[in-house]
Model the fold of this input.
Amino acid sequence: MEAGEAHSLANIVQAACVAHDIGNPPFGHSGEEAMGDWFADQFSSSNDLISEVPSDRQLAFKNFEGNAQGFRILCRLEMYRNDGGMRLSKATLGAFTKYPVTASTRESAASGTAAGYVGLKKFGIFDSELESFRGAASTLGLVVENQGDKTWWRRHPLVFVVEAADDICYNIVDLEDAFTTGEVGYDVVRDILYEAAGKPNRDVSTYTEAENIAMLRAISIGKAVESCVEAFKENYAAIMSGSFSWSLADICSMKSLFERMKKVSKDEVFTARRKTELEISGRKIIWNVMTGILPVYEDLRRSGWKEAGLTAHFL
Done:
């Protein structure tokens, strides 16, 4: 690969990494669940406005997905609104899209012969942006799968690189954050990061605990990048053909260390009182905000927003 090509690939990955959480609501995954539950409650209560959403699109509301909202922001809402959005390169859009499938298609595809494929774990495209992704996928030559009269795609190869960057950061940096907040003890964090960093032979006698953890975190990230790069190279053929169905972090040489980090987070961080209180308050905030905004859409409906051609942009 020539230097210019490598530079272009790095820029694509970097852009996709910067954008990867752009569609997440406040409070992260718990915020997604709160929004989905709010919509499900509205559907069950037969709200006049909400009930106008076609049945085949209700699933995308009940299981609100930040990945799909992110693609919507990039392609429609930000900058050139309803006219290409941020107008990013098709390669960047492909590298951004971890789940190249709509909610309704995913439901049937995930229960068929492709069950278990990593790109079907969630959905990443709303029906309103399907044609935008279809155009990018065609140009990029993504492997296409047909599910009855619907279509989904195998992941763009660079998705696995973007996903690895995310996995590396949240596993390692979250562990450092847990030490900083006092949720996980120094010895536990130090021991895991010391091994992840390759057991560096450095004199840390003058370091504070925070300085030592920061140093080990930085080295660990570098080692993790190297490990995931090797995993990509070893599975290059499967990745390029669209048959690869794992995350690089799950199969690389540091797999066991990532699993230890996840276990610590699950046992010590996700169950912490601070996080539980945040999720509970966050859920209440999101429900109150969405309930408060609903009358605005009801007013738009009464004033004839359907006639103004706004229906497609909301649905």
User: Anything to note?
Assistant: The first strand starts at residue 144 and ends at 147.
